[in-house]
Amino acid sequence: MNWKNIEGLDGVESPGLLVDSEKIQQNIDRMIEIVGGAEHIDRLFPHVKTHKMPEVTRMQVDAGITKFKAATLSEAQMAAGAGASEVLIAHQLVGPKLDRLATLIEDFPNTKFAVLTDDPQAADAINEKCGDADAPLDVYIDIDCGMHRTGIPLGARSDALRAHIDSLSGLNFAGLHVYDGHLHDPDLQQRTDKVKEILGKVALHEKEHPSPRIIVGGSPTFGIWAAETSWHLSPGTTLLWDFGYGDAHPDLPMNIAAALISRVISKPGEGKVCIDLGHKSIAAEMQLEKRFQFPDLPDAQPIGQSEEHLVLQTPAAASMQVGDIVIAIPRHICPTVALHSHATVVSGGRVTGERWQVTARDR
């Protein structure tokens, strides 16, 4: 799709986030296909951190996907409000956040909330603030399978933590959370081999210590886990996709369903244009030249970026005018979405007039 040819872009303020609802629906359909079709849809436990929008969550609910993973309490609240039957907050909650979780549980009685833990003291705090002997809160043990960010290894520590959770009357051991966010290998076979290594360790442990449920993987390994196991799967970026994952993982047939609209605001010199796409509008955690692609300016080279400005060197500068639209595709869509208050919806090659609020931007 040529984003620049979308009818109605002249009336969209820049910089701004665009989402294509048709492409999102196609991505949802492909997620369902990857897990084996509608009869296996219960395996899907998608993450909402990428889009943070209730409309995208409702699209999934309408398709039969009702369980979701969240990174923040705001995301969990958004998902519950959009009709989620279950929400796993995949971030160990500490401090005042536990009070907020207790309120969420009260406010959304039709949603079953769950949390992660990798620490006995954290489990005690969760039990004290949110535990209920009559309706125990589901708790998953966060397993470190190689990312070394959070979690504990399978074995003596995880077994001891499980026993500790079982001793707390307000909590229920719900299973294992095995996130492999360190696996980004472009080579599919290498990625597959690494998944199988993790799978083997988990499967071996499960023979002696079976878990009620296992939730595995992220987006890059989604298809592999789907093919190799019957466990629950939690892709997230697959809803909107981006060129970072698209270029690295062509085995995942997702559509880029989000883009950014910007405009030329100045022509600071020969061969140069300045557009209103600063690092307050697009994820900036990687090197400057890796942050974006410009479909209509393939030869453009970034010179410098500040909060509200991006200077490009491009042979097309001579023919460009102040006010011209420039479409950008972000490398990393998840943090990019969080920089915008709303998304302008496009469908069928035109701006629909809808604006979807990014309601879960806050934590």
From TrEMBL:
Keywords: Lyase. Belongs to the DSD1 family. GO terms for biological process: D-serine catabolic process. Signal peptide: none annotated. It holds the Pfam family D-ser_dehydrat. It is an enzyme of class 4 (lyase). This is D-threonine aldolase. GO terms for molecular function: D-serine ammonia-lyase activity; D-threonine aldolase activity. The keyword Calcium does not apply. Its EC number is 4.1.2.42. It comes from Rosistilla ulvae. Residues 257-347 form the D-serine dehydratase-like domain.
